[in-house]
Amino acid sequence: MSLADFERNVNQPTHSTFHLERMRLLTKLLGNPQNSVPSVHIAGTKGKGSTCAMVSSALSKAGLKVGLTTSPHLHSVTERIRIGFEPISKDLFTNLVRYLWPFVRRVEVDGNYGAPTWFEFMIVAAFQHFQDEKADIQVVETGLGGRLDATNILSPIVTSITSISIDHATILGHNVRDIAKEKAGIIKETVPVIVAPQQRSSDAFNVISEVAQAHNAPLVDVSQSHPVEIVQAGLFGQSICVTGNLSTYKFDLPLLGKYQADNAATAIAVLESLVKEGYVINKGAIEEGLSCVEWPARLEIVNELDPFIVVDGAHNPYSARCLVDAIDLIKKSQIESQGEIILVFGALKNHDCTGMLREFLRLDPILIPVSSRHPKAASHIDIVNCADKIGILVDDGSRTGFENLAHAMEYALSRTRAKDMVLGTGSLSVAAEIIEWKRKIAPELYPGLSLDTVAGNDPKNR
Fold it and tell me: How many CB atoms lie under 10 A from the CB of residue 220?
């Protein structure tokens, strides 16, 4: 048996494909491990992974054993299940698969909902691992949406919704209001919900507020309750001051971009909510946790010298706009006589390639179109067509494409001059593959997704 993998499957599922019955059945068979560890549940379009990382970092500095589950992964599937920031070992993961597999089979054979999906399996594996490791608290990022997301079987002590914009429109809705309603599906009766700053003129906050009121859930509007000031910004971080409800926090955030400052304020609001629930998290732990947080492929500088190489997982127009704003600040404040921007860009087929490239017009880049290993990756021809349509200059030598991203990066370096910047973006898969190329990280390849062999159940023997 193989598990349906909607993250990597070229066939886009409809919203009716998603429900929670399989998750409820599978976790019930396991004794509901998700309920054995108190939960922080975080949804959103942009910033939910970064916010999860910030909350987890501060909780770890406060002396707590923290389970952290996020998606997608960059280099190895084990990144999705962590204690603190340490991924589960491959041996432990293999043993976990072997333990869980008979229960997965029971859901497939005895239930009425088909086999669990790959994402559902990984979320249950995370819950089971956090229970086995006796975690003090678990920080859980939604995968897609919120209302029908596999993680939404939790009974959290606090929820949070980060910035919302249009993404996965065919599944979640074609406007921010519909998407916000799906994200707000994680709000629980009387449970505090922390809402990150939203785009101006967006309907998102009003929708979330309506859902919170209907559930008697206390709502914290971070844009009003936790003002944030960027005291100083540089190439490798920014000095931040956040005025919270319990204290004023000053720290050097190693993540770049105004949106990361907003994520930090949101994380602080989440942590202060936990303090009110009785958790001992002092100001020092919060400041130290935020000062040392690591979250790769988010406006990450992977080469400091000529050429200057930056990667970012921006994969929708709003994320691209935020990235362009941040690159503009870097150019103005840190890099004298900035040269050309070489945009190494690859998107997934179900993402708004044209909308993203339109945002990059402000940088006046030279485009090198690429296609990552991801099965949903758009072809370089599709990207060239989008670029030609909106007037982005495509590098002549790259119009025929490259065998892989490593070759594309070598080509990009061959045509850079002093003070040029190489910006790799369009999807997390592009950012991850550039990091692998630069740091010589061996990729984890999945020619066909099946856990039978790992679980010791080779289908050839059945």
Answer: 22
